[in-house]
Write a structure and sequence with these properties.
This protein has an eight-stranded mixed β-sheet, with helices on both faces. A two-stranded antiparallel ribbon has the order 5-13. A two-stranded antiparallel sheet has the order 7-10. It contains nine helices and 14 strands.
Length: 309
Amino acid sequence: MSWELDVSIIIVNYNTKELTRNCLKSVFDKTNGISFEVIVSDNGSNDGSVEMIKSEFPQVVLIENNANLGFGAANNRGLKIAKGKYILYLNSDTVLLNNAVKIFFDYWENSPEKEKIGALGCVLQDDKGNVIHSGGDFPTYKKEIFRLIKENVAISVNSLLSFFHIKQIHKKKNRLLNAVSESVDYVTGADLFVRNNSFAEFDERFFLYFEETDLQFKMNKNSLKRILISDPKTIHLEGKSNKIKMKSLDRYISFSSAQILFSRILYFKKNNHKKIWLFIIFILEQLYLFHFFYKTKNMRKKLWSLYVS
């Protein structure tokens, strides 16, 4: 199949006007030597993002979804009209530091095993140059059950600490990746470079989180490699702070944390369906939500509907 362009860069925007402006500026400033297009799939933003894009970046192909479709679905809208041989899924809170798009393209095109590649990513960094989450291993029942047990213990302890108005600060350490390239189970969706084919389409049942993991689990079953390479340089501002200040227990029941719980159940139901282990994860997630009693009544009901569906 012949393609009109080398790469289609797809960015999902939802009320991230300033971040999207900086991301787009970095893309157009840094990308050269290849033919490309930028598609922004906007999920019903009301912060002036759409007007900003139309005014400052008229070359961008703008999709106005007029509703928050979720991350995977919004990316799929861009995929449907993409003219590039390759797709770069790029978060709106990223900034390219070099000609990363061409580096991805050249690596794939020049690889002697290019037909065996499913996805590329880079070693992401925060705005201070620290290495942050860039990829990882596929979730397993053992790992997720252990994680949920730790979360339940932690939240119980912090509930007591909050009662006595004691603040906790949690530190997380960056894992340095020194290799020129490293095979991983999955590349994070913040900068996911894939071929424009059926393996580029997300399962829209995942509203947020686990969608890129699910996508690359399918690649894995088809013996396609997922690789992090060191030459593309990208800042991901989601990892801006290395400290999480426990100001309130409300962060535990934020929209994002709820989506992680829902998507975790969906991922295991779809890809590793063993009823007993899924049941244990479900119970641990319900226990996690039960810490908040009435605040999470609807969330617990939704989790139940996902489990039994």
